[in-house]
Design goal:
By secondary structure, this protein is α+β, with helices and mostly antiparallel strands. It folds into 2 domains: 139 residues, no CATH class; 328 residues, Porin (Beta Barrel). 16% of the residues lie in helices and 39% in strands. It is elongated. The two termini are 23 Å apart.
Length: 476
């Protein structure tokens, strides 16, 4: 049964349990729980099934004689008192489960009297419980495994931009959305199977290239699917849609969740690129002394029988990183080699648009961060670029970002150089980019994020611009 069909049918399945509350014994306030042993337990027993002429002594002797007593409850039995509802239920259930009543064992007259009073009502009760457990199992079969967790978010984005130079003078106020689902399934408690789905309507005509965007043409698309598990002191991950950056060492604590992320100009965005996935695997090591190491490989064309995995024609990516992390500072080295420039060159490097990348783009990065207080952190990254085009000079770019807890939210700011090359193929940065945004939680599940990015370019082919947007995100 498809997932969403299961979600729609769940209320109907719950409705099937309602008639079980009207059983013949006046059973009220029954709390049915599913335990780790997959048993049904009852925590309230308001039963009225033992006649007053049965004394505690007779009831007690019956249980002791047939070895189906109810443990500590028998210590409460006193002669000439009527047994409580709970004690009678527990004793009858114990004798029933032992097979005494079901097997019709030859009994003494006084014992037969107890059985005659108890057996019909106990049989009805057991049948009701069996029916209830059957309905519960049917309901559970249509739900997720207890080891699977579903989370997600929906983001509504509104914004626009203005341009001081270039062929485009302005962009109208417009909106887009993204909807993302994440399913994590653990089989041992230490491993997980990761599935990410997303849908959205972002298009290249929009200047709102934010971290949250999804460009799927309003259709759901699988973004990642891989399995991760511990192996000694290492973490190993592999899958048909493995994300290249998942096991990278940490070189930055900047939130990087707005424009800089989308345009690949945050700290070490070139040497530790995001958004690249394919058939691949990776492993990482995190030592107790704070040192870490990680490497990953992803074949973007891994599902293509003609291009394949690790071939000259295929599109492959490699990432290697090492770092050190402590409570107040850290940093490391990152390296990425790509068969495709996707994610390696900023969207703002206009001079590279339409060129053929006849070599493999590479980036080597150095990054570090500092957290002087609990409410402030600052990160910086430098990337050395080989764009993979014959005759083009190598380049360098840097980015700095900081987060500050302010009032009830987080204020974030960043500055970055924008890479570009001149007409002679020499590296000549186009200018600078600045971003500022504020993240504020309206509630535990709803947050807003207004902000902007400003670009100031030194060369005529660049566009001075201001992009501004506000995001509203619903998390579940």
């Amino acid at each position: 049964m498809k997932f969403f069909q299961q979600l729609w049918l769940t209320p109907a399945a719950l409705g099937l349990l309602t008639p079980l509350g009207a059983i013949a014994f006046d059973i009220n306030n029954i709390d049915v729980k599913r335990s780790h042993t997959d048993q049904i337990s009852m925590t309230s027993y308001p039963l009225k099934i033992i006649p007053s002429e049965l004394s505690y002594a007779q009831f007690y002797d019956f249980g002791e004689h047939h070895n189906c007593s109810v443990g500590n409850n028998n210590q409460l039995l006193r002669s000439n008192l009527i047994p409580s509802n709970q004690e009678s239920f527990l004793l009858g259930g114990s004798c029933f489960d032992s097979g005494l009543i079901a097997n019709g064992e030859s009994l003494e007259p006084e014992d037969q009297q107890v059985v005659d009073e108890f057996v019909s009502e106990m049989t009805k009760l057991k049948n009701r419980i069996d029916l209830l457990e059957g309905k519960f199992n049917q309901l559970s079969a249509n739900q997720f495994s207890s080891t699977t967790k579903l989370s997600g978010n929906a983001t509504f984005t509104f914004g626009a931009s203005t341009w001081e130079r270039g062929s485009t003078d302005s962009e109208a106020f417009h909106s887009n959305y993204s909807y993302k689902l994440f399913l994590n399934t653990s089989f041992s408690g230490n491993d997980f199977l990761r599935l990410s789905l997303e849908a959205g309507n972002y298009s290249a005509t929009s200047p709102l290239l934010l971290e949250s965007i999804a460009s799927t043409g309003n259709e759901f698309r699988v973004e990642s699917l891989y399995y991760s598990f511990p192996f000694g002191e290492f973490t190993v991950a592999a899958g048909p849609l493995y994300e290249l950056d998942k096991l990278s060492a940490i070189t930055s604590t900047y939130s990087n969740s707005f424009f800089f992320n989308g345009y690949y100009i945050g700290p070490n965005s070139f040497s530790s690129p995001i958004g690249i996935s394919g058939t691949g695997a990776g492993f990482s090591y995190l030592g107790k002394n704070g040192f870490s190491f990680g490497t990953s490989f992803a074949a973007v064309d891994g599902s293509n029988a003609e291009l394949g995995i690790g071939t000259n024609d295929g599109n492959d990516a490699l990432s290697i990183s090492a770092g050190y992390n402590s409570t107040s500072f850290g940093g490391g080295l990152t390296y990425a080699k790509l068969d495709s420039p996707t994610g390696a060159i900023s969207e703002l490097a206009f001079s590279l648009t339409g060129l053929n990348f006849d070599e493999n783009p590479e980036a080597f990065g150095i990054g570090f961060y500092w957290t002087p207080t609990e409410n402030f952190d600052i990160s910086a990254g430098i990337d050395f670029l080989d764009v993979g085009i014959s005759g083009y000079e190598d380049g360098m770019t840097f980015s700095i970002g900081a987060d500050l807890d302010l009032l009830s939210g987080v204020l974030s700011a960043g500055i970055a150089s924008v890479p570009d090359w001149d007409a002679n193929n020499n590296y000549d940065p186009a200018g600078m980019a600045y971003e500022l945004y504020y993240s504020y939680k309206i509630s535990e599940a709803i947050s807003i994020k207004p902000g902007l990015m400003i670009t100031t370019f030194d060369r005529d082919q660049g566009f001075d611009s201001i992009r501004y947007a506000i995001e509203t995100t619903f998390q579940f």
